[in-house]
Amino acid sequence: MRTNLSALVLCASAALTSFAIAASVPQYITAAVQSSSRPDADRERDVNRKPELVIAFAGIKPGQKVAELMPGRGYFTRIFCQIVGPKGHLYTIAIRPVVKRDPPPPDASGTAAPDPCQNVTAETQDAADLKLPEGLDVVWTSENYHDLHNAYFGKPDIEAFDRVIFNALKPGGLFMVEDHVAAAGSGARDTETLHRIDPELVKKELTAIGFVFDGASEVLHNPEDTHDAKVFELKGRSDKFLFRFRKPRH
């Protein structure tokens, strides 16, 4: 009986926590996610990507300048551009592959026109020569940071790449990294084969150049993922980390 009662208490606690998180999502994020302009293919992915919750954690707001690195087919692009609105601006930067790969993994290349938004500047650049506009509020990358350690993008100097992001952000600005979890202690071992990265390596690389680790969200955590399968085989159900890094204000 005690076991059943404990289970009920845990379930109730989890339900209350989920409700509290959902209740904290600003209306402008909800409106962008629910926009009729989003294609059905995007909506079908919402159950695994949880856009309202991850964007609320990132704190993206109307009027901000946001850069989205490696936007893929525009899943987040179509949401971000509506959130920042006409007084904000969204910059999407696709990274040019240096190695041909057929077919490319989901969201690894190409962009989609973020109709009906008119506040987007889209570019394609080489990872080794990344340039970003100054004074950004947020830089975002999802499910792609691990690729920067791979031959596909030429294995750029990751310290130099991250420093470009750091310098482009305004004081207090945020760098958001969402990616697939690799086994603890594996570093960059699985970035090429399983398309995963050790979360602790990401923390180490970014704090080494001056970012402050500002928080993590468990909203994309999947305890059933054992971290030993290729993420594409899991069809959106991989265990993912969501980290927030802040550029110091002084």
Describe this structure in words.
With 250 residues, this protein is an alpha/beta fold. It has one domain: Rossmann fold. It is built from seven helices and seven strands. It has helices spanning 2-23, 27-33, 40-49, 51-58, 77-84, 158-168, 199-208, and strands at residues 65-69, 89-95, 120-125, 136-142, 169-180, 212-217, 240-246. The protein has a seven-stranded mixed sheet with strand order 3-2-1-4-5-7-6. The longest helix has 22 residues, at 2-23. Residues 5-19 and 108-114 have low confidence and may be disordered.
Count the domains: 1
Uncertain stretches of 5 or more adjacent residues: 5-19, 108-114
Beta content comes to 15-25%
Q: Multimeric state of these chains?
A: single chain
For the record, the CATH architecture stands as 3-Layer(aba) Sandwich
The helix content is: 25-40%
**How far apart are the first and last residues' alpha carbons, in Å?**
55 Å
CATH topology: Rossmann fold
How many beta-strand segments? 7
CATH first level: Alpha Beta
